[in-house]
Amino acid sequence: MTSESPSTGQAPAGVAFPKNIKSFVKRAGRTTTGQAKAMEVWGPQFILKYAPQNLNLPAAFGRTAPVILEIGFGMGEATAHIAQVRPSDNFLCCEVHEPGVGALLKRIGEQGLEHIRILQHDAVEVIEHMLAPQSLAGVHIFFPDPWHKSKHNKRRLIQAPWVAQLASRLEHGAYLHCATDWQPYAEQMLEVLSAEPLLCNTSAQGYAAKPDYRPLTKFENRGLRLGHGVWDLVFKRV
To answer: What domain count does the chain have?
Structure first.
């Protein structure tokens, strides 16, 4: 759902920020008539404009509630499901792929999911410039691009300097939930997240059982039928 490529950004003090990281990869895809209509009808209400200044979260959502950041929501299937089963949380969702944004807006309109807001912008820059320290109750990063080739591993989103910055945006006790179907990336995630001093693993076994709120997507179900593994990692801010 997510991935990466060049960014400008400042890391936390003393940390070299990887400048080749973005939270997305440009993908081909045509916006359907229904998605375009959803962009026109629902976009003005649910899409937030990117601005390099702290976002007033209660004002953006029209209420005060715990904010969960989702990085790369694909076509919004899991996002809409989670928002349905967790109506007391606000969901701030980053995705640059226009068909995906249109698809989620369509779900928002059809299902009345008024506690979702979308930023059609690179999540790396959103975190750096728009989110204040300790402003998030949770983060979801589901199936980020694994960059399978070894020479491309440096483009992966889950890397130590960026995780340090992300962890600083979590309030104490907040969680970071990652999921991947690529075992080498799961192993890297576990290593990187375990090394971050602001985070602690909620599972003594390393990988966590899939939380009930995360649904199995069609893609994931197909992979499981083919014998592919899926690894969830849930860490908390200390």
So the answer is: 1
